[in-house]
Amino acid sequence: MNAKGDLIARAITLGLGTPVFEVTPQGPPHEPLFRVTVRVGGEVLGQGGEGRSKRDAERMAAESALKALDDPAPTRADDPQPQVTGRWPIYSVVLEAALETAAEFADDDATLDDVRAQAARLYRDLLTELGHGPEAEE
């Protein structure tokens, strides 16, 4: 299992954007400890990971994030977006418009991932309002 690659693929497929792995090294150089946090769309996903190597810490963080995607937390009353599973239909013209709109309204310092994440939210919200939610996976 390639947890990091699987997480990246799943997040992109779900329209969440590319995950960012934030690595924090600790300890002396001869005995390092790495703590990794995974962020998707600016939000922390999973419990993170810790290990003696950066690679192990990233793998553990990715596994935790995948588990969080598999077992989403219950929706809170103040949570504006319920957790939805399945494959969203692709309407290229609508997706293109969502990308253009997200790029137009993005902050000057926004990254490509920020614009993609905003476009995905716009696309998802529009399709949800129109009643074109995700298709059941077979």
From TrEMBL:
Alphabetized PROSITE patterns for the sequence: DS_RBD
- Record region (Disordered): 45-85
All copies of the DRBM domain together span 21-71
Q: Which SUPFAM superfamilies match?
A: dsRNA-binding domain-like (SSF54768)
Molecular function GO labels = RNA binding
The protein's matches in Gene3D superfamilies, at most eight in alphabetical order, are given as:
3.30.160.20
Does the record carry Nucleotidyltransferase as a key word? no
The answer to keyword RNA-binding applying to this record is: yes
InterPro entries for the chain: dsRBD_dom (IPR014720)
Q: Basic and acidic residues bias located where?
A: 51-61
Pfam entry (one) = dsrm
Any idea which UniProt keywords this protein has?
RNA-binding
Return the protein name.
RNA-binding protein
Its source organism is: Deinococcus arboris
